[in-house]
Each structure stands twice: as structure tokens, then as C-alpha cells.
Amino acid sequence: MRAGSLRWKVTFLKPVITINDYGTEKQSWEEAFTTKADVKFDSGDRIVENQELVFTNIVTFIVRFYHQIDEMMRIQWQGKTYRILSINPELLPYNQKIIKTELVNE
């Protein structure tokens, strides 16, 4: 891994479930940590789903190997939120994690 290629600041969000007085669960997101990453745009598409125009972007983030990341987290970068699809750890010889994500349309 080349440390100089980690030039974008990204924020990892973890899910937090709260229960109100009536027993209803609500999921919210809180900041887990912020780190530097390399970001690569893989693909994008424009589709019509349920009579609504949806833009899908697949973006790959590369971070250092030691970060504790799971598939339930989300990534926030440049004002957009991305859902983690897969995490590919490459311990030897690169010491990095390759995270494939898609844009969250909310």
C-alpha cells in the first residue's frame, strides 16, 4: 500500500438502534471513526425502479488493514452516503482493505 494514495477523508458510520416509549425501534447512524482512503469510481447507472428514477454508483474505497469495519457500517464521503457491499482484506503484501460500496438513495 502506498500511503500517499490515501488522500480522501472518509467517515465510517455505525448503526444505532433506539427504542422509544411505545417499543418502536428506530435505526440511526453515528460516527464510528474518520480515516484517510483512496477512492475509485467503478460504475454508474440510471434505472427506473417503481416508477422512480434512481442513480446507482459503485465506488471502491481502499483503507488500511487495521480498521475494524463490518458490512453493517456505511461510509460518508463528500456529502454522500455509501452502503458497504463487500470487504476484501488483502493482508499480504499490501496491508489494505478493499471496500466495494453503492450509493444510498434515500
Mind sketching the topology for me?
Layout (H helix, E strand, L loop, with lengths): L7 E12 L5 E25 L2 E13 L9 E4 L2 E11 L5 E8 L3
Antiparallel strand pairs: 1-2, 1-4, 2-3, 3-6, 4-5, 5-6
Written account of the structure:
The chain is globular, with a radius of gyration of 16 Å. The protein starts with 7 loop residues before the first strand and ends with a strand. It is 0% helix and 69% strand. The protein has a 6-stranded antiparallel barrel with strand order 1-2-3-6-5-4. The chain has a single domain, classed as Beta Barrel (Thrombin, subunit H), CATH 2.40.10.270. It has 106 residues and is mostly beta strands.
What's this, in brief?
The protein is an all-beta fold and 106 residues long. The protein has no helices and six strands.
Task: Categorize the overall geometry.
Answer: globular
Give the number of helices: 0
Look at the structure and give the mean pLDDT: 91
Question: In CATH, what is the class?
Answer: Mainly Beta
Instruction: Determine the fraction of residues in helical runs and give it as a percent range.
Output: under 10%
In total, the number of domains comes to 1
CATH architecture: Beta Barrel
- Main-sheet strand order equals 1-2-3-6-5-4
Order of helices and strands: EEEEEE
Number of E-state strands: 6
